[in-house]
Amino acid sequence: MLKSFLDEYLKDAGYSVHLIDGETRLSIVQGDAEPDVVALTPDHMFRIASTSKTYVAAAVLRLMEQGKLALSQSIAGLVSAETTAILQGGGYHVDQITLWQLLNHTAGIFDHTQSDKYGETILEDTNHVWTAHEQLKSAMTWGKPYGEPGEKFQYSDVHYILLGEIIERITSKPLPIAVRALLDFNGHDLAETAWELGDTWQPAPDQRAHQFLAGDDTHSWHPSNDLFGGGGLVATPRDVAQFYRLLMTGKIFDRAETLALMLSPDGHPKDSPYRLGLFEQDHNGHPIYEHAGFWGTGAFFDNVTGIVVAGGTLQHEDYHLLERALVAFLLAARS
Predict the structure, then answer these.
(1) Is the pLDDT of residue 196 over 90?
(2) What per-residue string of b and e applies to 157-166 under the rule 16 or more CB within 10 Å gives b?
(3) What does the DSSP 8-state code read for residue 74?
(4) Are the CB atoms for 297 and 240 separated by under 8 Å?
(5) Where are the beta strands (DSSP E) in 170-237?
(6) Inter-residue contact 224 to 135 (CB < 8 Å)
(7) pLDDT digit string, tens, across residues 128-187
(8) Are residues 39 and 57 in contact, defined by beta-carbon separation less than 8 angstroms?
(9) How far apart are CA 239 and CA 250, in angstroms?
(10) What span, in angstroms and rounded, lies between the C-alpha atoms of 121 and 126?
(11) Distance of CA 125 to the CA centre of its chain
């Protein structure tokens, strides 16, 4: 049934999709990983961009389980003196911003990726090597606060860049190594998932599919434009689906109440669709947990059926079609 929805919505598009439904595992691919050179296979990895936020949030919650963090605590003292100075220079009060607010995007910090200047800067030099502090400074320069801490939901990559720094400082490990250990990638056999830079292994260029933006091949673009917690992971859709399955069935956390906290709407702004590291989107009255990534990737979990689907399109502009196809499939699978 999944293939029929993909054919309907993505007839001519390139994509890779993986389904987990009970004991059923199914990969469906279409197109070329490298145009006219290499056919796309289920083994090709994608830059999953903001879908990485689910992993980062889960890592923070693991630190909470270990008693190393409390979600109610402010980030004062958790971030470096340099980061504190950058935020204060932008008009933010670190003693009023909490981990909870970073996780659910209510801290009110401007998102540098939403500025036209960000895209322009990347296109001027796609091989520019960014730093996290450079992106934080850009956010301070390019936009104003969205509101007071806790006032409202407003998605911002900066929130998760800060979480990435906090994970590093609490664990005394680089973010890729810390997340790998906290979520036990090795123990869960997530062998097709890695931070693109700085992990225990680095995927070879030919392991990644070529992902396009407005006709431009972004394969060689330096990954530091989205590397520090707001994004950064590369993975096969198969591994993304498996991670979501592990997460949503309680295999990532030590305690069931941690997953319940991650998914609960309690304590969030009434109109916010975001939980802790993922969205609870309403599709015609049917909630689905999900997270997308800018380059055209996404993961979806239906709590009613337990079905997980994850996928990526080769063209950024085709992602909305993939989302429509996968959501339509999930809703049809309920009947």
Answers:
(1) yes
(2) bbbbbbbbbb
(3) B
(4) yes
(5) 193-195, 212-213, 216-217, 233-235
(6) no
(7) 999 999 999 999 999 999 999 999 999 999 999 999 999 999 999 999 999 999 999 999
(8) no
(9) 17
(10) 8
(11) 24
Q: Are 325 and 10 in contact (CB under 8 A)?
A: yes
- Tell me which residue of 258, 287, 257 sits closest to 274, measured CA to CA: 287
Helix residue spans in 10-98 (DSSP H): 52-65, 81-89
Dump strand ranges (E) for 203-307. Answer: 212-213, 216-217, 233-235, 279-283, 286-293, 297-301
Contacts of 69 (CB under 8 A, 6+ apart): 60, 63, 78, 99, 166, 170
Whole-number Cα distances in Å, 78 to 66, 148, 149, 318: 16, 20, 17, 39
Helices 175-182 and 52-65, interaxial angle, to 10°? 70
Question: Which class would CATH give 2-333?
Answer: alpha beta
Q: d(Cα 248, Cα 143) in Å, to the nearest integer? A: 36
Closest CA to 112 of 48, 78, 52, 161: 161
Residues in the chain: 335
Nearest-CA neighbor of 91 among 144, 157, 134?
A: 144
Cα 262-263-269 angle, rounded to 5 deg: 95
**Tokens at 210, concatenated:** 């070529």
Instruction: State phi, psi for 105 to the nearest 5 degrees.
Output: 60, 45
Segment holding 241, helix H or strand E: helix 237-248
* Strand bridging mode 233-235 / 297-301: unpaired
